[in-house]
Amino acid sequence: MCDQNVTWSGWYRLFINNMSAQIPDKCVAQYSCGTDIPLWIRGGHPTVDDGVVARDVCGYSGSYCCFYGSYPIKVKACPGIYYVYELVTPTVCNAAYCAGSAAVAFMSYSTMENLLKPNFFNTPNDTIKTMMSTVISATLPKTTNTKLTEPVNFTLKHIREFDPNGSLSCVYWNISEWIVDGCSVLETNSSYTVCSCVHLSTFALIMQTSRPPESNSLLELLNLVCVIVGLVFFSLALLTFALCQWSPGVNNVARINICISLLLAHLLFLLTQQFLSVIRPQQVLCAVISGLLHFLFLSGFVWMFIEAVMLFICVKNLSQISSKKREVLSSGFMCVIGYLVALVVVCVSVGLVPEGYGSEQCWIKMDKGFIWSFLGPVCVILASNMILFIKIVICLNSTLKNLNAEVSQMKQTKIMVFKTLAQCVVLGCPWILGFFSNGSKMLEILFLILNSQQGTFIFLIYCVLNNEQ
């Protein structure tokens, strides 16, 4: 009934938590008591430290009880919820030992990832590697051939929280490093990943995530101080526009709304960066904040363009905007244009790419070209402002040549400097540096200072140095 020619020792999985379990090998004759039926050991489970001990091996086949007798066994490992035994070669073959070379040893190492670290996974990208599973091994003990005729699939449980932005790789250990040759990810969810490999080896699951930029405490402190100073001067400028008496010909609607938009944008951005560790895990909140920042900064640019148009009309007509001009550029009309244009851009962006908001810094994501939903309108406005700026300079030069002799040269210079400086600063010249600051620490610092001090410039130009009151 049993193959009597087997005389070697093999690996067998016999029990799960003291309950009988089937060995997957089917080498014995049908209807006989062998390795394709439940087996157990009488007398309790030995431990790994016990070495070779004698135990009674028993089993059932149908209504027949099979008692195999007392044989030496050795526990090789207990990697999980089961035992791995080595059955020492018996003097007489019994069905329990009659397994062929198809027997598989499967082991799980609960702390092996501390030795075979994910940093041994070499990739061309500078990413953070995180071990997402325990290290497991699958081998065929009776053969040195590790290649399979069909891929083997195994499911690995995640031992750490899965980052949706991360990339998973099924890897195996090759002498001194983790590699992916012959292994791939079939499917995954937040808790498990199914790997498929064309060979047996030692496997693991590694997640790659983008490496955050190195923090610069000095730059962060400089940013904090500059933004706070800018916010103070934005507030002072708003109070000045609201409380001071201005001549009837002065229209401060654009200036007030520039201050409001940029004050709220800088304040929201500052608070977001200070509490980023709390906000970032809340993906919906992070996306809402990035969309609101998108709207506020864009509305600030639109109001800058409106200010440029008003300045152009002012210079062209040699006076402050008259009541007739205010009818053309009424406060209500300017408010609709100033905020509606930015709102339309944000709504269209959300409709086209709803997942484009909520980057690591709670800002617009850079992938899929979505950043151009902000850079595109900014480029158009800056280009338009540059054209208006050139026309204003030409018109202003022509106007100064035709001024009455009663106007002194100093007053002409003061008007020229004031209008030119107001145009350059208020219409966002510091933002031009933002296009070229990538990789340059000096340009990054210069952009940070100039951009954060827009409130200071507005207060100095329109409140301190202006004589329009």
UniProtKB/TrEMBL annotation:
Q: Where is the GAIN-B domain?
A: 64-213
Report if keyword Aminoacyl-tRNA synthetase is assigned.
Answer: no
Gene3D superfamilies (UniProt xref): 2.60.220.50, Rhodopsin 7-helix transmembrane proteins
Span-the-membrane segments of this chain are 221-244, 256-276, 288-315, 327-351, 371-394, 415-433, 445-465
Q: Give the membrane topology.
A: Multi-pass membrane protein
Query: What GO terms fall under cellular component here?
Result: plasma membrane
Name the PANTHER family on file: ADHESION G PROTEIN-COUPLED RECEPTOR E1-RELATED, ADHESION G-PROTEIN COUPLED RECEPTOR
GO MF annotation list = G protein-coupled receptor activity
User: Which terms does the UniProt entry file under GO BP?
Assistant: adenylate cyclase-activating G protein-coupled receptor signaling pathway; cell surface receptor signaling pathway
What this protein is called in its record is Uncharacterized protein
Question: What sequence ranges are listed for the domain G-protein coupled receptors family 2 profile?
Answer: 219-466
Q: Where in the cell is it found?
A: Cell membrane
**Which keywords describe this protein according to UniProt?**
Calcium, Cell membrane, Disulfide bond, EGF-like domain, Glycoprotein, Membrane, Repeat, Signal, Transmembrane, Transmembrane helix
- Supply the InterPro entries for this chain: D8C_UMOD/GP2/OIT3-like, GAIN_B, GAIN_dom_sf, GPCR_2-like_7TM, GPCR_2_EMR1-like_rcpt, GPCR_2_secretin-like, GPS
**Highest taxon, organism lineage:** Eukaryota
Q: Its family? A: Belongs to the G-protein coupled receptor 2 family. Adhesion G-protein coupled receptor (ADGR) subfamily.
